[in-house]
Amino acid sequence: IGERFDAIVVGAGPSGNAAAYTMAKEGLKVLQLERGEYPGSKNVQGAILYADALEKIIPDFREDAPLERHVIEQRLWTMDDTSYVGMHYRSEDFNEEKPNRYTIIRAQFDKWFSGKVREAGAVLLCETTVTELLRDTQGRVIGVRTDRDGGTAFADVVILGEGVNGLVGQRSGLRPELKPDSVALAVKEMHFLPREVIESRFNLKGNEGVVIEAMGTITDGMTGTAFLYTNQESISVGIGCIVSDLVDSDRTPYGLLEAFKRHPSVRPLLENSECKEYAAHLIPEGGFNAMPDLYGDGWIVVGDAGQFVNAVHREGSNLAMTTGRIAGETVVWLKRRREELSKANLAEYQRRLEDTFVMKDLKKYRKIPAFLHNNKHVFGLYPKLISAAAQTWFRVDGVDKRTKEKQIFKALRQGRTLPGLIGDAVKLARSWR
Ligand code: FAD
Prior knowledge:
Layout: E1 4-10, H1 14-25, E2 30-33, E3 48-50, H2 51-55, E4 67-79, E5 84-90, E6 101-104, H3 106-119, E7 123-125, E8 130-135, E9 141-146, E10 152-160, H4 167-171, E11 183-192, H5 195-202, E12 208-216, E13 224-230, E14 234-242, H6 243-248, H7 253-262, H8 267-270, E15 274-284, E16 295-296, E17 299-301, H9 317-336, H10 343-354, H11 357-364, H12 368-374, H13 381-394, H14 401-415, H15 418-432
Parallel strand pairs: 1-2, 1-10, 2-7, 4-12, 10-17
Antiparallel strand pairs: 3-6, 4-5, 4-6, 8-9, 9-10, 11-14, 11-15, 12-13, 13-14, 16-17
Helix pairs in contact: 1-3, 1-9, 9-10, 13-14
The structure holds flavin-adenine dinucleotide (FAD).
Flavin-adenine dinucleotide is lined by residues 10-16, 33-36, 42-48, 129-130, 161-163, 167-168, 186, 188, 238, 240, 281, 283, 303-305, 309, 314-318, 320.
């Protein structure tokens, strides 16, 4: 590679693409390195795209981006073995001129985004793995070594958008190893069905879509969630649990997914579909407290590599794009002022992030991962109690309503003592603040 660049971006996922696009559009000389055969070939997502983050980078993305369905209905399910209790929100307002959320297929979406990055002027090299960072005698990062013959490249700054494993950062001593309790392992399948079948099963027309997020006994007491999203001619279905829980359990992610698909509330939605894809991927879910250093002399971390995922709201790609954009804008700003890309100056990246939803949300939920880790009732006992209460309430069997109320409270107290219930509610409220 040999040449010198203003910036090198490691990875062509949403974070790397956002950073590379932002800098190339402003005329910086950008080299982007991706280990996959093409951008998106290694990437896995549910996938919901949050329009707002992309709009701030490519305002007219709707004109040619490969979008599947815009989401008009959100279903949140808490499940036990035979039932679910759901909160469904569906609104005609989501059929707006510029919809707010879309389902996408990452392999197609990443290719499209990467096309925009190259149109903006960045140089992309695929099938090129960055193996380590190069430093000068003062320890400043000055470039990267790749697995290509003689493949070193030099730049004023290296932006690490290498995803959750963050191996380059780890090998270079910029970040600690991932902890098993800060990362979830998710598996996902794509089930194909004719679009009319999807539309009639989910009560949709045109490109309208439905997404389901589910929790409960489906994860067998482990911290985790499942999802089911409608695409044009396929349904994405998946489940993920925290790795440390999986290690302690005898359940496999694949076994959990099979059980989720067999659940009486899910099976009819997938009936007669053809499964054509299976993928597994990690999700960083440690939140704010698991965040590594975000910048240093000559380097910045963006996206999953920096633990930028809001697991409570199932948001990741938008945090990736936002951190990538802000990293890019910071570099452009410093270059324009002819400032060095030193640690002290790159602190501006974190300062700018502090003003965005990214840091505000991660800070707000900083205690949630520990709360979920220490309160497994949320994933087993409570879903069972909620289902049992719903069943008692809705079954018409000659029992008067006051007695039913008593039965529900008795069952609750038998499942969890009153101090236990109050304690959980207080802990949740404190973690949610
Ligand atoms: P990635 O998308 O992982 O991209 C990193 C890129 O870097 C990859 O292309 C990789 O090949 C490349 N790379 C890695 N190492 C090197 C190297 N050494 N040299 C060169 N290239 C390298 N988020 C949402 O917003 N909505 C969802 O619905 C959603 N659902 C999800 C469902 C699942 C099952 C999973 C696993 C994640 C989901 N996420 C979702 C999270 C989202 O996918 C991530 O937050 C997002 O992809 C992070 O983008 P990124 O660019 O930081 O990392």
